[in-house]
Amino acid sequence: MNKATSPEVMKLNNKKAILEFIYSEKNIYRAQIADRTRLSNQTVTNLVKELKEEGFIKEVTMETKGKGRNPIALSIALDELCAIGVEISVRGVTVGCFNASGQVIRRDEHPPTDVILPIVKEMLEMALKAADAKTILGIAISVEGVINESKGLVVKSSVGLEGVNLKEELRYLGIKTYIRNDVNLLAETSDRQEENYMMIRFDRGIGAALFLNGAILRSDHNMAGEFGHAIVYSNPSPRPCKCGKTGCLTTEASMSAIETHFNMSVLDVAEAYHAEDPEIFPKVEQLSRYIAEPLANLITIMDLEKVLVTGTLVDLLGEKFLQSIHRAVHERLSVWNSFQGIEVLEAYDFAERSAKFVVEKYFLRWRNGGAISKK
Prior knowledge:
Layout: H1 6-25, H2 30-37, H3 41-53, E1 57-61, E2 72-76, E3 81-89, E4 92-99, E5 104-110, H4 116-131, E6 135-143, E7 146-148, E8 153-156, H5 166-169, E9 177-181, H6 182-188, E10 197-202, E11 206-212, E12 215-216, H7 250-253, H8 255-262, H9 266-274, H10 280-302, E13 306-310, H11 312-330, E14 341-344, H12 350-363
Parallel strand pairs: 3-6, 6-9, 10-13, 13-14
Antiparallel strand pairs: 1-2, 3-4, 4-5, 7-8, 10-11, 11-12
């Protein structure tokens, strides 16, 4: 394949810039695009013509109260574009085809299985067929576990895909594919882009993402955000962890650990906690202090403003549990910290958020760190 020449790269960059303005502004005029991009009117006219022919944008007649012809604005052709969003978790596989405005075209779910990769491929192929004549912007797959996101490799996961390079396995589809850690994807599609925050998901395991200065914190070894493997040093009876250490937070505060140690379902634990059962209530309160210990250290070190929490455990234990964590965190913070509190993440659907990730990755250049990619 020949490398793009400089004029081709410049043209691609200009088209991406135009798409970004149209996507961000919803309805925008050609003259406004020329003014903001500092491109000539003729260049904008030519590139807009190409983008219309490619099916990315459409003309919109704007209603005015004045006399004369109504002005013509430009908008993204959201109904003619689509993205595929996938969730792979211990609860099974969900694959959805969504148009660029987030409306469902097709959605399928499959229960947990030992042959997960063939199921994912089959469901993806059905979703692609559902796209019909629409332009497919890409595929994004959310996976629980440690993910090498640049390579698309599942490094460690409880879903049965360890060592599988999903990007390579799906290359035959011929569509740009992103593989993301589940919590990283939630943070990247959050509307809180101006805040420095940590997002934590308390479920069968514990996962987290750090969002700092407008970007997810990533590391060369894909271990950034492994909050579940922070050590709780105040625990007088630390338990061994699968990672090889002893005393990891996940051995105490994950749903799996709670069910093992309490010898009852998390639902029963939650009911007893809300009823302030004399045996269960203090044990759950102790869990909130175990969570607060490493959390307060991270808030201090990273100068975090907010902590967003989500997951089944959060849903079951509710506001009382979060308030307990909040109090325990504040007991450990200095008087000059900038921390504003703990909030529950709004309701979300991983397949839908994965599709949203694709759309924003395509149209918003800042999602790509300012880089424009043809891949």
